[in-house]
Amino acid sequence: MAQLGIIDETEAILVSETLNNALEYAETEILTAAGVKHTVELNPLEMEEFDLFREFEEPDFKGLADCTRKLSIAKGEKLFSKGDSGYEIFLVRRGRISILLPLESGKRHHLADIDRGSYLGELSFLDRRFRSADAEVKEDVELFALSREKFDKMVHSSTIVGIKVFARLALVIAERLRQTDIELEALEER
Known about the structure:
5 helices, six-stranded antiparallel sheet, alpha+beta, globular
């Protein structure tokens, strides 16, 4: 534990807010001790590189581009908090965001990390209700923010784009629900 920096010279113990943060810290320390450095700088993705838009044609991207804006957010900042309004879906062009569920005890439960090529905020985009968790930037991020309001206007002239987007979102949400079922079953067996 001392070699990983979990216990310092005063024998104090490093405490992490989530298991994910603790594992991430330990992994980073092990890789650093082994001399492994993360030096690959990935370019920000463009719209057509996101799996969400896998089967789209070139004209579809023009309409989608008119509905989006680019954002850059620094490490440590929040993209949004539980209870915030906002009906955008955010596509991660570069960086990483942690999704954390605030608990009554004041702690937070780590739900997921959203990395380059994925997206978040799809529930509020779909149902236009408040955000259900916190989104905290773990690495500087570059994003596309797809506005539901602008998207709705665009879909009136290009319904096929709307159908494709909603079909892809439905598939991803179904996959996440299946994963949640597996996790709940594992918890029940404990």
